[in-house]
C-alpha cells in the first residue's frame, strides 16, 4: 500500500496547535462539543485496526517482557499492520489527539513487552514508526509516552469503557477540578495586580491566602494516592510501561524507528526532528531516538505553572542541575539552560508550555507587590503559598519514597533508584523541595 503521508510544515503544526488551544479553551476538555455532542471516542473507521490491536493487547493482557505465544503473535500482527496514512487526521484535532493516544500506548506495549535482549536496540516497526512520528510531529510532541498521554487525554478511554456517558467522562474532570480551582485563584491574583487601588494590598493578601489553601488541598489529594494504588502495583506493574529510551548510552534501551528509505526521502522534517538522528547502522530509513525521558508527573503542567506564577523558577528550574553525577539524568539536551524540570517542558502539550510562559510574564510583578512596604498581609500570604508548595513537595518526596525506594529495598536491591523520568530521585526531589522553601520573601 503506498503511503500517502502528509508532511506537516511548522505552519501546519502551529495552526493545529492554535486550533487545539481554541478547542481546549472552548470545551475545557468537557464531554460536550459546541453542538452538545460527546467528543469522538473512536477513530475514523480506516484506523480501527489501531484501536482493535490496542484492545487485544489489553485483553490478552500483554505483559512486560512477554515471551508467550499470544504476545509473540500480537507483536507479529503489529509488525504486519499497514503503515496507514494519517493525512485525514491532520486537520481534525480531536481525532489527531486520539490517534496519538492509541499509537503511543501501542508503541509502549510493543517496546516493553519484548523479551529482554542483550543491549540490542528495539526496532519500532514501520506500521507504528511512521504514524507515531508524523502525528507526534504535528502536535510538536516527542515520540514517547508523556504525562499528558496518561492523564489529560485518558478520560476518553474511561468514557468508552462506560458507554460514553457524560458522568463517566467526569472521572478526569474531577481530577482536574483542583487544578482548575488553583488556576482560578491565580487568575484572581493577576487581575488584582493589574488594578492598583488602596484596597489592592488587602485583596492581594486574601487571594494569595486562597491560593495557598488550594495548593494545600493538592498536597492532601497527593497524600491520598495510596487509597487508589498500592505501592507494589505501581512499582511492579505500572511504572515499567512508562519508561522512555536511553538514546546513545550503552546501557541498552535504545529505540530505532523503522521509517523506510522512501518515506525518509519524502519526509524532509525527519532531519529536523530534535528527538531523532539518522540510524548509525548505515541502513537507509532507520532513525534512532535520542534519549527521551519516560512519562513522569514532572511533566505535570499545574505544578510548573505554580513555580512560574510565584516567580520562583530561578530556584526550582535553574539550579541543582541533575545532569551531573549527583543527579543522574543525562537528558536529551533540548534546552540549553535549566535542569530536568526545564527539560520536562518539552514533554508537555505545546499550549501548556506556552501558557506557563505567559502566566510567568503576567505575574512578573507579584513578588514585588507582595513585598512592598505596607503590604505585610500580602507578604505573609505570599510566603504561605510558597510554603504550601514546599509542603506539597515534601508530601511528594514521601510518596516517591513509599512507591519506589521502599519497594526496591523490599527486593533487596542496592542499585541506584531511578524515577520513570530517569532522575536519581531522592536527591533531585529533595533539592527541588528545599529550593522551593527558599523562595519566601525576605530570603532572596
Ligand atoms: C505513585 C505516585 C508517584 C510517584 C512514585 C512519583 C515519583 C516521582 C519521581 C521519581 C519523580 C522524579 C522524576 C522522575 O525521574 O520521574 C517525580 C517528579 C515529580 N512528580 Fe511525582 N510521583 C508520583 C505521583 C505524583 C503526582 C500524583 C503528582 C502530582 C502532580 C506528582 C508530581 C511530580 C512533580 C511536580 C515532579 C517534579 C519534581 C517537582 O517539581 O518537585 N507526582 N515523581
Automatic annotation (TrEMBL):
Origin: domain of life: Eukaryota
GO biological process: one example: 'de novo' NAD+ biosynthetic process from L-tryptophan
Coiled coil: none
Gene Ontology CC entries for this record: cytoplasm
UniProt key word Ligase: no
One annotated GO molecular function: heme binding
Entries under Gene3D superfamilies matching the protein: 1.20.58.480
Sequence positions that bind heme b: 396
Protein keywords: Heme, Iron, Metal-binding
Record has Metal-binding as a keyword: yes
Family classification: Belongs to the indoleamine 2,3-dioxygenase family.
Name recorded for this polypeptide: Indoleamine 2,3-dioxygenase
Record organism: Bondarzewia mesenterica
Lineage of the organism: Eukaryota, Fungi, Dikarya, Basidiomycota, Agaricomycotina
Amino acid at each position: 500500500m503506498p503511503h500517502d503521508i502528509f508532511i506537516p510544515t511548522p505552519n501546519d503544526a502551529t495552526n493545529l496547535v492554535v486550533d487545539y488551544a481554541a478547542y481546549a479553551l472552548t470545551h475545557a476538555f468537557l464531554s460536550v462539543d459546541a453542538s452538545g455532542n460527546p467528543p469522538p471516542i473512536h477513530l475514523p473507521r480506516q484506523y480501527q485496526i489501531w484501536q482493535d490491536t490496542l484492545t487485544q493487547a489489553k485483553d490478552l493482557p500483554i505483559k512486560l517482557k512477554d515471551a508467550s505465544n499470544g504476545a509473540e503473535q500480537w507483536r507479529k500482527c503489529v509488525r504486519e499492520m499497514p503503515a496507514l496514512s494519517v493525512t485525514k487526521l491532520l486537520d481534525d484535532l480531536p481525532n489527531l489527539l486520539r490517534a496519538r493516544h492509541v499509537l503511543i500506548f501501542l508503541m509502549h506495549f510493543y517496546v516493553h513487552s519484548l523479551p529482554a535482549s542483550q543491549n540490542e536496540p528495539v526496532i519500532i516497526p514501520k506500521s507504528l514508526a511512521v504514524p507515531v512520528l508524523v502525528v507526534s510531529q504535528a502536535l510538536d510532541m516527542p515520540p514517547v509516552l508523556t504525562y499528558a498521554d496518561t492523564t489529560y487525554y485518558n478520560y476518553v478511554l474511561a468514557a468508552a469503557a462506560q458507554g460514553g456517558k457524560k458522568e463517566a467522562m467526569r472521572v478526569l474532570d474531577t481530577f482536574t477540578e483542583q487544578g482548575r480551582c488553583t488556576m482560578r485563584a491565580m487568575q484572581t491574583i493577576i487581575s488584582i495586580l493589574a488594578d492598583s487601588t488602596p484596597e489592592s494590598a488587602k485583596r492581594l493578601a486574601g487571594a494569595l491566602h486562597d491560593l495557598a489553601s488550594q495548593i494545600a488541598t493538592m498536597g492532601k489529594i497527593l497524600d491520598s494516592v495510596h487509597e487508589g494504588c498500592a505501592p507494589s502495583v505501581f512499582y511492579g506493574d505500572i511504572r515499567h510501561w512508562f519508561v522512555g529510551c536511553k538514546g546513545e548510552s550503552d546501557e541498552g534501551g535504545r529505540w530505532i524507528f523503522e521509517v523506510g528509505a522512501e518515506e525518509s526521502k519524502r519526509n524532509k522534517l525527519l532531519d529536523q526532528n530534535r528527538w531523532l538522528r539518522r540510524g548509525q547502522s548505515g541502513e537507509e530509513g532507520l532513525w534512532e531516538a535520542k534519549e527521551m525521558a519516560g512519562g513522569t508527573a514532572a511533566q505535570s503542567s499545574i505544578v510548573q505553572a505554580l513555580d512560574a506564577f510565584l516567580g520562583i523558577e530561578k530556584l526550582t528550574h535553574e539550579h541543582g542541575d541533575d545532569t551531573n553525577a549527583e543527579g543522574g539524568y543525562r537528558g536529551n539536551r533540548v534546552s540549553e539552560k535549566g535542569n530536568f524540570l526545564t527539560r520536562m517542558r518539552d514533554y508537555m502539550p505545546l499550549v501548556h508550555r506556552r501558557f506557563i510562559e505567559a502566566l510567568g510574564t503576567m505575574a512578573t510583578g507579584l513578588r514585588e507587590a507582595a513585598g512592598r512596604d505596607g503590604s505585610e498581609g500580602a507578604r505573609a500570604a505570599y510566603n504561605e503559598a510558597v510554603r504550601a508548595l514546599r509542603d506539597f513537595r515534601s508530601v511528594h518526596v514521601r510518596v516517591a519514597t513509599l512507591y519506589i525506594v521502599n519497594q526496591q529495598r523490599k527486593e533487596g536491591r542496592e542499585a541506584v533508584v531511578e524515577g520513570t523520568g530517569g532522575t536519581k530521585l531522592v536527591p533531585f526531589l529533595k533539592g527541588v523541595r528545599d529550593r522551593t522553601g527558599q523562595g519566601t520573601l525576605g530570603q532572596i
